[in-house]
């Protein structure tokens, strides 16, 4: 091993020059990391390395120089470019010159196994390292080093692979005369012209990057002369040196965290400080100081005089409407409780989070003659971006992709560059593409593409040569083909992950869950495996899906279709008559499903039908007792888990019905719960929990588990106050206490389903985010799943659509290897990935990110189709192309009944269960005027009479100059001006709007040029029928049994009763009278029914009150409804 030195000079933030000397030890065992290595053994096998390998079938290797790596990193990030050799020379220089963002991007490319790219340690490789000559510039020394690397690879691989040096600074003449002819120097344009002539995306990206670089150079040349003058106009400040930032954070003078901009109030951002300081609010762009949403920033606290309470208004900006009620729960509580929060300003950036952004050219910019234009990102929390483009007319009304390059201190907006166009704004396919890009869904997944190498790994399954199990493999599996196995899924399901078997044997129950054996076909570190790992999950949108696996697996060979043999991973239990587990078996099996049932068919059999449509009568006779036995068994299993604290919360999932003729949306339907949903889900939960414990026993430091931590107590504040407004008390001390309280609320309000739904939704919103963990990253007592009340949990049952399940399958098989004498298994010993806790934690983090973004994409897709539906419903015939949304007469009224779900200072949010839509209703205008529609102020009898009249437009007549008093948690009181009472007969003096009141609203669409259209609502009036049937029973006074109104003076009696019960104090006299009379009526009904006792079926002891949403919906809701951002 030889020793040498590298010397370089570095300019610090204080403009001093520091000389650095680094010792370098040259080695002879640096591997080439090429799968074409001709040595025996190959050089990467002689030393332990954790890296991808250069591909065997590549036509060339690429080596970018510093000019390309520094300024064209985005081009190198494109998935088309593979087999790139990133030299240590270039990466070290990026580090030395504080180009950490570029350095991390290149390292990320090398870490992606699909890219088959590597980092070559040429500076430590004997025979390749190059010393700097006297008077030689650093650029020329580094260029010589790259040329030598290219020559070394040519010699090492016996001239088998050409090498292309990419440079924007050097040419072929700069290589010298003794260079191999197969070492070619190309500019990026020359390279794309020769090897990617038809890739418009790559060529367009190169052109925009060149324009951005030109602009950056111009700015750099002029910046010194204008910076002092411009800084005052922008209000931005220079960032503090990194050394000062690090010292300040360590001493707690500064605070570090991920900056999040509030989606519904873009003027406010925040970071999460330590446990003492809590959340720090950053108000205004000057205090944000050029930081962008998602950046890791360092914040300095401002003095207490400037501390603020987060805004309690609903935003008036239309692009913010669709997220106005969906901030994280801590923010939601602050809206109501007016908590004063510390404020701060950004004094430094630790790490930028700049990403590709979907944007639209600012309206009117296409008329400007200049080449610089402002674009508005689709995500409203991102500031406007200044880009350079030679022809703005081409970009007008288009959704385009842009990236941020820099944000100089003298610029109001960040500088960026145009990447590509997605298509016309508000076009369906364009908006879907925008959703995918916003949430980081890869190009390969969105185009449904798998590489040729991946497809070559797939088994053959054609009509001429259908796939069949291999005889040798059958001897290694438990044969369950004679068992009655069946699946229960939604209609037209193609990717069937799971199937069930159950039967009684000698007084005991044999119960099995059988899962598609994906890991048999997808070998670890194969091309298919690497692609599946990168994708992480199948992405489901409202009208399409993007698969994690090739269709030959997901829809054919792995899918557990009926009447064909399929490989499975099975969990088999022997249970007693009370569903207690006597024994458990795990292993690989071969099954033949008897039937692919739909949920409605299985529910029909469970309801007692002997035959259901779509299933053979003879088969129904076999399946019915199995379905009934399954239901009886799972009820008992579920009852025990619920008794331990399992939660039944709420989701508002909807599905869309599409017209066959034109693809339009014919209807939005809430997903209807069936008991069979619970039954199947409980079976899957049981399998997941047992597998979780088994893999933990085998992999104490690296088991892939699913973790759901207890919620933060402060997140329950909104739920507690909402429940109190109805007279309920919620105990949140544990999951069992919370579950008991919610069930108590449900039992006492069984006639008000919407109230229970919203209460459970609030509980869901308070939950922390569930996530994957490697078992070694947390102590055992933190493994528990709070929502399911289970000590161990994982994902095992959906390997076709979730990569985490594939990992769990592999860990389970590794655990089973050799555990039982004579165990028949086809597994190999556990790989380093399965055993390495640190690596497994990285995989878990990646899957958490992909899972979260997939759910957010699904949520955005749902909102997109909801707006399209409202657009259809509010357009008049013949006005399909109209974009004028300011005139109410141009819209077809579209009214629905909703529930007030949240009270704010200038209005309230309404949830419409029929369509799963939540939107704002404004009472206070931006000008400060408080106005209420005439229809909402009319007495019930007047409103009913007026609504029966034809062409009634009372909801369009606004009563202005009202007065409003707001209790931010429970109610709004609107006082009508005297002149309105005189002008209009039959008006109430006040309008009371309470949380959970039912109201009639008109659903409307606020159209936007740069952003997506958003739904808002206008109040029509109270739903008096709903109030009469539910509000007086559920919201009105909880008067003790036996209360009576004695005598003629009801007012005195009501006053006496209210004084005896403080809980009745908030209610009006009228409400108390109605509540007492309602109680008297219920007493009379009970007396008429008599005291006969009903005989209870023992099975009902285990049958839970049917919830309004499925358990898996609950699990997904933890992420979909409230994804709590964790501090860095």
From TrEMBL:
Cleavable signal peptide: none
Cofactor(s) demanded: Mg(2+)
Superkingdom of source: Eukaryota
Annotated ranges, domain RNB: 477-818
Main location: cytoplasm
EC number from the UniProt entry: 3.1.13.1
InterPro entries linked to this entry: Dis3_CSD2 (IPR041505), NA-bd_OB-fold (IPR012340), RNase_II/R (IPR001900), RNase_II/R_CS (IPR022966), RNR_Ribonuclease (IPR050180), Rrp44_CSD1 (IPR033771)
One Gene Ontology cellular component: nuclear exosome (RNase complex)
Substrates-to-products reaction catalysed: Exonucleolytic cleavage in the 3'- to 5'-direction to yield nucleoside 5'-phosphates
Keywords associated with the record: Cytoplasm, Exonuclease, Exosome, Hydrolase, Magnesium, Nuclease, Nucleus, RNA-binding, rRNA processing
GO MF assignments: enzyme binding; exoribonuclease II activity; RNA binding
Cellular compartment(s): Cytoplasm; Nucleus
Span list, region Disordered: 1075-1100
Gene Ontology biological-process entries: nuclear-transcribed mRNA catabolic process; rRNA catabolic process; rRNA processing
Matching PROSITE patterns: RIBONUCLEASE_II
Similarity annotation: Belongs to the RNR ribonuclease family.
Name this polypeptide is given: DIS3-like exonuclease 1
Species this protein is from: Podila minutissima
């Amino acid at each position: 091993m030889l020793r040498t030195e590298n010397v370089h000079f570095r300019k610090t933030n204080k403009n001093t020059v520091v000389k650095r000397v680094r010792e370098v030890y040259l080695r002879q065992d640096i591997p080439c990391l090429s799968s074409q290595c001709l040595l025996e053994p190959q050089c990467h096998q002689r030393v332990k390395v954790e890296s991808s390998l250069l591909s065997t079938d590549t036509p060339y290797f690429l080596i970018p120089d510093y000019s390309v790596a520094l300024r064209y990193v985005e081009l190198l990030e494109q998935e088309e470019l593979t087999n790139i050799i990133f030299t240590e020379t270039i990466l070290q220089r990026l580090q030395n010159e504080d180009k950490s963002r570029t350095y991390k991007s290149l390292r990320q490319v090398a870490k992606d196994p699909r890219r088959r790219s590597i980092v070559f340690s040429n500076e430590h490789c004997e025979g390749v390292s190059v010393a700097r000559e006297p008077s030689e510039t650093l650029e020329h020394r580094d260029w010589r080093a790259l040329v030598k690397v290219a020559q070394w690879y040519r010699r090492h691989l016996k001239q088998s692979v050409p090498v292309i040096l990419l440079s924007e600074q050097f040419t072929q003449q700069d290589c010298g005369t003794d260079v191999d002819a197969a070492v070619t120097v190309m500019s990026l344009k020359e390279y794309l012209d020769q090897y990617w002539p038809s890739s418009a995306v790559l060529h367009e990206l190169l052109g925009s990057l060149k324009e951005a670089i030109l602009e950056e150079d111009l700015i750099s040349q002029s910046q010194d002369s204008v910076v002092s003058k411009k800084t005052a106009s922008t209000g931005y400040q220079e960032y503090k040196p990194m050394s000062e930032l690090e010292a300040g954070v360590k001493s707690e003078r500064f605070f570090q965290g991920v900056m999040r901009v509030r989606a519904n109030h873009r003027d406010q951002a925040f970071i999460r400080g330590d446990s003492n300081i809590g959340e720090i609010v950053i108000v205004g762009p000057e205090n944000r100081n050029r930081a962008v949403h998602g950046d890791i920033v360092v914040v300095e606290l401002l003095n207490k005089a400037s501390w603020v309470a987060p805004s309690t208004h609903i935003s008036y900006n239309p692009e913010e409407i669709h997220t106005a009620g969906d901030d994280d729960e801590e923010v939601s509580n602050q809206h109501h409780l007016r908590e004063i929060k510390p404020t701060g300003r950004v004094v430094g950036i630790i790490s930028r989070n700049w990403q590709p952004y979907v944007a639209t050219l600012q309206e009117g910019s296409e008329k400007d003659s200049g080449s610089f234009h402002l674009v508005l990102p689709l995500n409203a929390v991102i500031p406007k971006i200044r880009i350079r483009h030679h022809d703005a007319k081409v970009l007008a009304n288009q959704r385009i992709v842009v990236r941020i390059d820099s944000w100089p201190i003298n610029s109001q907006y960040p500088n960026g560059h145009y990447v590509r166009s997605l298509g016309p704004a508000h076009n369906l396919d364009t908006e879907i593409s925008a959703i995918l890009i916003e949430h980081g869904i890869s190009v390969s997944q969105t185009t449904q593409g798998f590489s040729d190498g991946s497809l070559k790994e797939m088994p053959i399954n054609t009509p001429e040569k259908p796939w069949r199990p291999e005889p040798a493999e059958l001897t290694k599996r438990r044969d369950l083909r004679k068992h009655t196995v069946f699946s229960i899924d939604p209609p037209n399901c193609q990717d069937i992950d799971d199937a069930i078997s159950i039967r009684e044997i000698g007084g005991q129950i044999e119960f099995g869950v059988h899962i598609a054996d994906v890991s048999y076909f997808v070998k670890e570190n194969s091309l298919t495996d690497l692609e599946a790992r990168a994708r992480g999950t199948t992405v489901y949108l409202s009208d399409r899906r993007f698969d994690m696996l090739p269709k030959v697996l997901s829809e054919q060979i792995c899918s557990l279709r009926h009447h064909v043999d399929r490989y499975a991973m099975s969990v088999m239990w022997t249970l007693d008559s009370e569903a207690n587990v006597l024994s458990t078996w795990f292993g690989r099996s071969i099954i033949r499903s008897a039937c692919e049932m739909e949920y409605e068919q299985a529910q029909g059999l469970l309801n007692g039908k002997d035959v259901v449509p779509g299933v053979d009568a003879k088969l129904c006779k076999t399946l019915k007792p199995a379905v009934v036995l399954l239901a009886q068994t799972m009820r008992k299993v579920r009852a025990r888990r619920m008794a331990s604290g399992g939660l039944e919360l709420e989701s508002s999932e909807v599905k869309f019905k599409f017209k066959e003729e034109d693809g339009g949306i014919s209807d939005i339907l809430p997903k209807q719960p069936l008991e069979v949903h619970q039954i199947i889900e409980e079976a899957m939960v049981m399998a997941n929990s047992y597998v979780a414990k088994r893999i933990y026993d085998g992999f104490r430091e690296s088991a892939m588990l699913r973790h759901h931590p207890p919620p933060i107590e402060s997140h329950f504040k909104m739920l507690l106050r909402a429940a109190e407004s109805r007279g309920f008390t919620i105990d949140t001390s544990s999951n069992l206490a919370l579950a008991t309280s919610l069930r108590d609320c449900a039992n006492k309000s069984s006639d008000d389903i919407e109230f229970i739904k919203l209460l459970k939704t609030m509980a869901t919103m308070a939950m922390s985010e569930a996530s994957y963990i490697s078992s070694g990253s947390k102590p055992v007592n933190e493994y528990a799943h709070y929502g399911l009340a289970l000590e161990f949990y994982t994902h095992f049952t959906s390997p076709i659509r979730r990569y985490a399940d594939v990992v769990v399958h592999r860990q389970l098989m590794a655990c089973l290897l050799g555990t039982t004498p004579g165990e028949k298994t086809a597994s190999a010993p556990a790989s380093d990935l399965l055993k390495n806790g640190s690596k497994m934690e990285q995989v878990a983090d990646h899957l958490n990110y992909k899972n979260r973004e997939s759910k957010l994409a699904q949520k955005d897709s749902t909102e997109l189709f909801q707006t399209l539906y409202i657009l259809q419903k509010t357009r008049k015939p013949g006005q399909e192309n109209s974009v004028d949304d300011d005139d109410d007469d141009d819209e077809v009224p579209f009214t629905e009944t909703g529930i007030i779900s949240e009270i704010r200072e200038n209005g309230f949010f309404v949830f419409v269960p029929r369509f799963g839509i939540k939107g704002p209703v404004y009472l206070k205008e931006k000008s400060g005027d408080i106005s209420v529609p005439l229809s909402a102020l009319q007495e019930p009898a007047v409103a009913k009479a007026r609504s029966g009249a034809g062409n009634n437009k009372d909801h369009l007549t606004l009563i202005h100059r009202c007065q409003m008093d707001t209790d931010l948690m429970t109610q709004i009181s609107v006082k009508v001006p005297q002149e309105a009472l005189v002008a209009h007969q039959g008006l109430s003096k006040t309008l009371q709007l309470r949380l959970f009141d039912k109201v009639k609203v008109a659903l409307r669409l606020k159209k936007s040029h740069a952003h997506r259209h958003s739904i808002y609502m206008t109040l029509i009036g109270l739903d008096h029928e709903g109030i009469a049937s539910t509000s007086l029973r559920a919201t009105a006074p909880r008067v003790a049994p036996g209360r009576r109104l004695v005598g003629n003076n009801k007012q005195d009696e009501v006053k006496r009763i209210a004084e005896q019960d403080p809980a009745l104090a908030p209610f009006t006299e009228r409400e108390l009278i109605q509540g007492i009379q309602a109680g008297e009526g219920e007493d009379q009904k009970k007396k008429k029914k008599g005291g006969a006792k009903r005989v209870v079926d023992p099975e009902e002891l285990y049958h839970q009150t049917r919830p309004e949403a499925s358990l898996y919906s609950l699990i997904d809701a933890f992420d979909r409804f409230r994804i709590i951002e964790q501090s860095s």
